[in-house]
Amino acid sequence: MKLQLYVPDGRYEPWIEGFAEALPEAQCLKWEESQGEAADYAVVWRPPVAMLRGRQDLRAVFNLGAGVDGILRLRDEDPDALPAGVPIVRLDDAGMAAQMAEYVTAAVLRYFRKLDAYDAQERAGTWKFLKPHRRADFTIGVMGIGTLGAHIARTLAGFGFPVRGWSRSAKAVDGVESFHGEDGQRAFLDGLHVLVNVLPLTAETEDIIDTGLLYRLARGAYVINVARGPHLVEDDLLAAVREGQIAGATLDVFRTEPLPADHPFWQEPRITITPHISALTLREDSIAQIAGKIRALAEGKPIAGVVDLQRGY
Ligand code: NAP
Ligand code: GLV
Questions:
Q1: 82 is in which domain, residue-wise?
Q2: Does residue 306 form part of some domain?
Q3: Which PROSITE patterns does the record associate with it (predicted)?
C-alpha cells in the first residue's frame, strides 16, 4: 500500500516515521519525490493544485485538519482539481476539540473577569474594584455546533454561562439553547455578549461576520474567531471596535496569514492576535485516526468525516 504525503512546511520525517509505525504495511512517499506515481491514499494539508487533479488511482484523500477549504478551494483555480468520486476525509477531532475548548474558555474568562482592565490597572499601580459582569447576562453564542463547536459550547455551559448554538440542521446539545438555519440566525444573535465562530468556510459562511451581524450583538460584546479569516469582514470589525459596539476581539485566523506587519489589527489594543494555534493538528492522534480509517476502508467498513462536496464541509 502506498501513501503519498504533502505537508507545506516540508517537515516530512516525523510523519513518515509515524505512519511507518502505525501502518507498517504502507510505503509513505513525499509528494515532491513521487509525482506521477500511483498511490492508494493521499494525506495532505493545503496541497498544490497539481497533486489531486485526475487522480483516479487514489482510494481516498485524508486532510490533515478539520477544515477542508484548503482542498475544496483548489476548484477555484481549476474546476477539475479534485478527483471525481474519490472521498475527501477530514480530521474528526483528533485532539482538537479539547484545544479549542481551552482556547475559547481562556478568552471568555479573560473578558468575563475583566482581566485586561486589571492588567492595565496593575501597570498603573492602581488598586481598584471593578464592577463584575453578571454571569446570567453574559450570554455566549457558538456559531457552528459540529465536532469542535459542540465541545466548546458544552464546556462553556459547564461554567454556568447561558450558551446558545447555531448550526445548519437542528441540534440538541445538553445545556445549550439551539438555533438553526437562516431563520434561526436572528434569534441566535440577538443580544449575545460573546460570539464564538467555529463554522467551516463555505460560500454561505464567507464574510458572515459583518457590520449587520456585529450590530445584532449586545452593545460592548466580544468576538472570538477560531474558524477562518474570510468569515470576518476585517474593516467592519475594526469600525465596530472603534465605535464601541464591540469591546474586544480575540482572533486566531486571518484573511492573510501570517498577518501582515502593517495590518491595523496589530495597532488595536482591543484586538488580541494569535497565529492560528487555537487547535493544532496533533501528529500522533491524527496518524492514529487516519491509520484506523485506512484499515476500516480495507475491510469495507464505513468511516466518519467524509466531506460532502456540495455542502462544502
Ligand atoms: P464540523 O464538525 O463540520 O461542524 C461544522 C458546524 O458548522 C456544523 O454544526 C454545521 O451545521 C455548521 N454549519 C456549516 N455551515 C453552516 C451554515 N451555513 N449555517 C449554519 N451552520 C453551519 O466542523 P468542525 O470540526 O467543528 O470544525 C469547524 C471549523 O473550525 C473547521 O472547518 C475549520 O475551519 C476550523 N478550525 C480551525 C482551527 C484553528 O486552529 N483555528 C482548527 C481546527 C478547525 P450542521 O451540524 O447542521 O451540519
Ligand atoms: C486548522 O485550521 C484545521 O482546520 O484543522
A1: 2-94+281-298
A2: no
A3: D_2_HYDROXYACID_DH_3
Label residue 263 exposed, middle or buried (CB < 10 Å: 0-12, 13-18, 19+).
Answer: middle
Q: Is 66 in the pocket of ligand 2 (CB under 6 A)?
A: yes
Ligand 1 atom with minimal separation from the 180 CA: 20
Ligand 1 mean position to 81 CA, how many Å? 23
What is the position in ligand 2's atom list of the atom closest to the CA of 68?
A: 4
Q: Which ligand places an atom closest to the C-alpha of 280?
A: 1
What is the CATH number for 129? 3.40.50.720
| pLDDT tens digits, one per residue of 207-217 | 999 999 999 99
CA distance 63 to 60: 10
pTM over 0.90: yes
Nearest CA residue ID for atom 37, ligand 1: 227
Is residue 147 located within the same domain as residue 34?
A: no
Query: Do the domain assignments include residue 217?
Result: yes
Residue 258 CA: distances (Å) to CA of 76, 227, 254 = 22, 15, 8
Task: Kindly report, residue by residue over 53-93, the tens digit of the pLDDT.
Answer: 999 999 999 999 999 999 999 999 999 999 999 999 999 99
